[in-house]
Structures are given as structure tokens and as C-alpha cells.
Design a protein that fits this description.
Number of strands: 13
Number of domains: 4
Strand content: 5-15%
Structural class: alpha+beta
Shape: globular
Number of helices: 14
Oligomer: single chain
Radius of gyration: 23 Å
Length: 392
């Protein structure tokens, strides 16, 4: 391979990784990434279309990767700002109403007029929307999400003021062209949430692309997620999958009897990798270590260690007590810390919770360590830190 082709492959791979992590790319926010996508648009579109069933659309200042084949279940929209959190159901609803209100323009609108349009859209959708502070704050969260994604720009004054002042106003620039790029094709003609989920999962028509998308979008794909024919086909084509994931994303596939996991060796593809630093990441790693210490995973299926929620809280409380010097104030509340730890582990398909029962899944065994010692920042930076790559 020549230096030129090696350099080109590195550029296309960087563009692929960026698009998978951030399917909406704005020229003003990520100029270098957008330039790469524009430069290699045709190669990117061909790869994503033929291999994953995705579709890439690039305009003068926006790139959108439509992920049509598989919708991950634990990938929520999050609020803008450094202390981001998943949007609440009310905030999701208001994002949808605000997008509907501006989809046809105008390009410039006052905050008061926009809120009037949102309330009209709510009435049409039979959604009750009050003038109370709670709904005003939810509207602000929705509009700030749109600002963060380049759909709205504050030209004069700030949206935030509306949260505490119902008479606040601002001048906003709207990007209806970008709003039009947000909905996935599965949204068309779907009349219920269940139908939308069914339409978004192209498993029957394109089972090969569906399995490949699940490998890319989910941290682990277990044998129990597939039927017998699908599992046999995936194992038979494993070398092909490994080549595709290496070429496009510089990722490796780890295959075991229980399933497959995609590993990012440098840990920079996603914003929520595992293992991770900080109190929650350290606590999660130590919890896995204790949970799997007394039992090996089964050779088939997803059978693993089963713990009661009370037992998990007890383990986390003991860990918090032993590491309080290094961990954040979250360690003072073992129940909240347990919630955060289980959320992280469920996001990465390392555990699953069913009521008051927590099941440790087979992929967790790759992170078993004898001991992890936190450094002064609360990171898992001490001895026996695992050397594995990051689970997506």
C-alpha cells in the first residue's frame, strides 16, 4: 500500500468514526471533520450504504448519517451543557413539538412567536402544555437542545430567560433545512411508538446488515439475541466482519461462545466508554470484579451471576466506604451511586436488571481484575488496572 493510499484510508476511517459517533456534523462546529466527510463523501456513502444499510446526505454545511437499520435501546438524547443528562419524557415531547413548529420556517422568528407555534402544535397533537414554571423550563431545555445541534441560533438575547420570565423574548435564526434532516425514514407513517420501533428494525429484509449494525451500535451482541440460523451465519462470516470493522473504524471484534463484542483499543470512539475514569466507572469495575469472583460464565447463552438489588447496594456501600478518600460526593449516597453504576453497566450490556434482580452478563468477564486502586482524581489509575480496550 502506497503512502497516498494509506493516508487516504486514515482520512476515510477518521470520517467513519466521527459519523458513527455524531451522525449530525455541522461545518461551523467540526470544520476538520466536515472537510474530511466532504472530501470522501462518495466512498463514505458507498461503504455505509452497502455494508450497513445507512444513508449519508451532505449539504453545503451539514452532513447527516441516517442510521435506518437498528435503533439502540439505551442511547437517549441528552441535554446541552457540561452536566448533561438524558432528556425527560416531557422534554422529548417538547423537542418533537418544537421541530414540528419550525420545519417549514420561517428563517428568523421571535421567541414569543416560536413558543406560540409550539403551543399550537401541542394543541394539534392533544398535548396539554401549561404556562407554569415546570413546562417553561422544559421548553427551554428543548430549545437549548436545538441550539446545541445547530438548528437554532440566538441572534439577540437568550432563550434561558423564559424559564423564569414568561414575558421574556429573543430573536432566533432557524435552520429548517437542518430540521428536515433529523427524522429517520422509519418515522414516516408510523402511528404508534410500537410501530415506530418495528419499522426501525430492518431485521427480516436485511438480516446481515441488521446484525452488523447491532455489532456497531451495541456494546455486545449475545448469542441469545439471534436465532440459530443468524448466529451460524454470523460465525461463518466472522472474518469478513472483522475486516470491515478494521477497515472502516479501526475496531476489533472479540468472539466468544456467548457472543461477540466490538473493542475500541484507543477508547476514543464514544463519549461513554468502559472502562472509564471517575467514581462511577471505578465503582462499576470493582462491582464486576466482586460479582464474578466466585463463578465462571457458562459456555453458552447469557447465563451469569445473579444478585439481588439489596446485595448490589451492600457491595457498592462497602466499596464507597473503602474508597471515600478518592471518590466524589456521590459515594456519600450508596443508593444513588448504585443507580449510576447499574445504568453504566446496562448501557454496555454488562449487566441486565429485572425488577430487584441484577444479572451479570458474559461480556463482564473480560473486565475482571484482582484489585483496582484509585488515584487522587478518583480514576482507576492504580495497580491491576485492566489493559483491555474500551467496550463501545
Amino acid at each position: 500500500m502506497t503512502d497516498t493510499s494509506t493516508h487516504q484510508l486514515a482520512e476515510v476511517r477518521a470520517a467513519c468514526r466521527h459519523l458513527v459517533a455524531r451522525p449530525l456534523v455541522l461545518a461551523e462546529r467540526d470544520p476538520d471533520a466536515f472537510a474530511l466527510i466532504r472530501r470522501h463523501e462518495h466512498a463514505l456513502d458507498r461503504w455505509f450504504t452497502q455494508r450497513f444499510g445507512y444513508r449519508l446526505q451532505v449539504t453545503a454545511d451539514t452532513a447527516r448519517l441516517f442510521k435506518n437499520t437498528w435503533v439502540p435501546l439505551r442511547r437517549p438524547l441528552t441535554t446541552s451543557g457540561s452536566a448533561s443528562r438524558p432528556l425527560a419524557q416531557r422534554e422529548y415531547t417538547l423537542v418533537a413539538l418544537a421541530l414540528a413548529a419550525v420545519a417549514a420556517g420561517p428563517n428568523v422568528i421571535s421567541l414569543r412567536d416560536l413558543i406560540h407555534e409550539v403551543r399550537s402544535a401541542a394543541t394539534d397533537a392533544q398535548v396539554a402544555l401549561a404556562h407554569e414554571a415546570a413546562d417553561r423550563r422544559a421548553i427551554v431545555v428543548a430549545l437549548k437542545w436545538m441550539v446545541d445541534h445547530g438548528l437554532v441560533e440566538e441572534l439577540h438575547d437568550r432563550i434561558d430567560r423564559y424559564a423564569t420570565d414568561e414575558d421574556a423574548d429573543a430573536v432566533l435564526r432557524i435552520r429548517p433545512d437542518r430540521v428536515a434532516l433529523l427524522p429517520l425514514p422509519a418515522l414516516a407513517m408510523a402511528e404508534s411508538a410500537a410501530e415506530l420501533v418495528d419499522r426501525s428494525e430492518a431485521r427480516v429484509a436485511t438480516s446481515r446488515a441488521w446484525m452488523r449494525c447491532r455489532l456497531l451500535e451495541d456494546p455486545a451482541l449475545y448469542r441469545s439475541d439471534l436465532d440459530g440460523a443468524e448466529w451460524s451465519e454470523l460465525r461463518r462470516r466472522l472474518a469478513e466482519e472483522e475486516a470491515i470493522f478494521s477497515e472502516m473504524f479501526d475496531l476489533t471484534i472479540e468472539a466468544r461462545a456467548e457472543g461477540l463484542a466490538v473493542i475500541d483499543e484507543d477508547g476514543r470512539l464514544g463519549d461513554n466508554g468502559f472502562p472509564r475514569t471517575g467514581t462511577v466507572g471505578h465503582a462499576a469495575l470493582l462491582l464486576l470484579t466482586q460479582a464474578i469472583a466466585h463463578r465462571k460464565p457458562a459456555s453458552e447463552g447469557v447465563a451469569g451471576v445473579t444478585l439481588g438489588r439489596d446485595a448490589v447496594e451492600t457491595i457498592v456501600a462497602e466499596l464507597a466506604n473503602g474508597h471515600r478518600k478518592y471518590w466524589s460526593q456521590l459515594a456519600e449516597d450508596p443508593v444513588r451511586l448504585t443507580d449510576a453504576v447499574l445504568d453504566l453497566l446496562e448501557d454496555h450490556r454488562l449487566v441486565t436488571t429485572e425488577g430487584d434482580t441484577v444479572v451479570v452478563l458474559p461480556a463482564a468477564w473480560r473486565y475482571g481484575v484482582e484489585e483496582v486502586v484509585a488515584d487522587d482524581t478518583g480514576s482507576a489509575g492504580g495497580r491491576s488496572q485492566p489493559s483491555q480496550g474500551t467496550l463501545l
